[in-house]
Recover the amino acids of this structure.
């Protein structure tokens, strides 16, 4: 026997580790080999209809593909952002068609369901496939089996195939707009604050909104600020407006917000230096710097090797108003006037304030809502005296008297530019 005669615990432990490692290496090699692409057909033209929807259901309606992205940060793979049933989806295969050879390669996928599923049966997932050598496939199909008819499978364009120079410094990702969203005034104010602070692009995953909100979105699309990603997730799954599972038969939380956030990071990985992850009623407000660029330059200098910066959320209840900036022309526009809400709730005892993020998208592998799940760099909590999240919404501490709230007029530093810009938008949208 390999370990015969060893009586001490130390020797036994060394022996076990040695045997385990001897067995593990071949197993890992076999696992890697099983995921290597294999040629199954030759001399064919790439078939299958190209998928144009944001969300595409595969046969059986247990797997939903959002979009594939080329990812060579560790090895040459295609990473598909998707939604899967965490128990029922056991195996998937990527079908790559290489031109001009016409060879079709099949690669077994690694299915990585994100850990932040919050009890729902469906969750965000990375479907990762090794790409064939000597081939830069432009499209990929996904199938439950390694054999079949490629012409019957939808084809997805693989994004990020070509590295680009950054076209913008800051992109804001907002997910998801649903519930016939009609908070028009606050949305315009948030958009104009993002632009004042340094955002050049805002990506919105839109499920639905009011007719008036559609007009506002059309203005920002024509301006070049907003990119709309249609998000018809309720056409495929029973969605919840809650973030955690309520045992109510729903399939996925908060309209698939986590999937949308991950897609937004990869979608902007090659075109934006930073990605800002927050909601439309949240603004990351710098306290020591005039804008995000100056703030991030300082934060990166102080935190080398950090790729994720987390900002503390603070509630400015919409139920408590200041008499300042009661602008009559805004009173007919539905929604909240954030300039009138400058009282924030104090911290709650034994409750940690949630955080939102500004990230280097090239360093993020998987994200949740309030933190990243996997990244190449470090994460840093930004001190509250540097920046905070201005979050104007319904109060969390409803019974607090006004004198217990903290007056914080940081937002008013931007009032002249904000009022001018909001008025310009309202006049152009004819509100």
């Amino acid at each position: 026997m390999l370990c015969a005669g060893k009586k001490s615990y130390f020797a036994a432990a060394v022996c076990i580790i040695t045997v385990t490692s001897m067995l593990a290496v071949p197993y890992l090699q076999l696992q890697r080999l099983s995921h290597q692409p294999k040629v199954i057909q030759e001399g064919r033209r790439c078939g299958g209809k190209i998928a144009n929807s944001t969300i595409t259901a595969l046969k059986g309606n247990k797997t939903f593909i959002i979009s594939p992205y080329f990812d060579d940060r560790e090895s040459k793979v295609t990473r598909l952002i998707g939604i899967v049933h965490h128990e029922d989806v056991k195996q998937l295969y990527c079908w790559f068609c290489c031109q001009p050879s016409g060879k079709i390669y099949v690669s077994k996928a690694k299915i990585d369901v994100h850990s932040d599923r919050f009890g729902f049966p469906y969750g965000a997932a990375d479907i990762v496939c090794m790409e064939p050598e000597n081939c830069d496939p432009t499209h990929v199909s996904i199938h439950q089996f390694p054999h079949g008819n490629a012409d019957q499978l939808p084809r997805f364009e693989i994004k990020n195939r070509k590295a680009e120079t950054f076209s913008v410094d800051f992109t804001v990702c907002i997910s998801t707009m649903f519930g016939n969203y009609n908070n028009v005034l606050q949305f315009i104010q948030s958009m104009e604050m993002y632009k004042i602070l340094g955002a050049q692009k805002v990506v919105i995953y839109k499920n639905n909104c009011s007719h008036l909100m559609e007009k506002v979105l059309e203005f920002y699309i024509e301006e070049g600020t907003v990119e709309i990603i249609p998000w018809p997730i309720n056409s495929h799954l029973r969605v919840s407006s809650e973030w955690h599972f309520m045992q109510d038969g729903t399939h996925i939380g908060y309209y698939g917000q986590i999937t949308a956030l991950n897609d937004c990071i990869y979608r902007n990985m090659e075109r934006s230096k930073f990605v800002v992850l927050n909601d439309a009623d949240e603004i990351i407000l710098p306290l020591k710097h005039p804008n995000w660029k100056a703030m991030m330059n300082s934060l990166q200098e102080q935190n080398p090797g950090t790729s994720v910066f987390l900002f503390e959320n603070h509630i400015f209840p919409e139920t408590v108003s200041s008499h300042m900036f009661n602008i009559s022309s805004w009173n007919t526009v539905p929604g909240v006037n954030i300039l009138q809400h400058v009282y924030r709730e104090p911290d709650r005892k034994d409750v940690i304030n949630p955080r939102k993020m500004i990230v280097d998208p090239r360093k993020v592998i998987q994200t949740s809502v309030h933190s990243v799940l996997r990244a190449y760099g470090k994460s840093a909590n930004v001190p509250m005296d540097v920046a905070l999240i201005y979050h104007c919404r319904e109060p969390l501490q409803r019974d607090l008297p006004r004198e217990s709230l903290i007056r914080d007029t940081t937002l008013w530093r931007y009032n002249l530019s904000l009022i001018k810009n909001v008025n310009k938008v309202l006049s152009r949208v004819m509100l």
Summary: The radius of gyration is 25 Å.
